[in-house]
Here is the input.
Amino acid sequence: MKRKIRKGDKVLVLTGRDRGRQGEVLRVLPKEDRVVVRGIATVKRHQRPTANTPGGIDTRESAIHISNVALIDPESGKPTRVRLQRDKEGNPRRIAVRSGKQIEA
Here is the structure.
């Protein structure tokens, strides 16, 4: 299945405790249908000190389901759905449904 959200896209979180916040996609996990978004769904991990690391509390982003985010339309700044279209050479392009503009990525 073709993923419509890619690394580097700006997305809006639709549900959960971070609802309404925006962020950049850092990673896409296609097998799990999840994305990691900068600054969204942060969790604290406790690290025990070892010979190489000092240990302490690490804050990082956890993955959220891809259905809980919407791509931000580059023209209007509002959330939009994505349509896949082929250009004259047959290459796939991502089109924002809200504005009809091509999404650069």
Summary: Strands lie at 10-13, 22-29, 34-37, 42-47, 56-61, 64-65, 69-72, 79-80, 82-86, 92-96. The CA atoms of residues 13 and 21 lie 6 Å apart. The two ends are 19 Å apart (CA to CA).
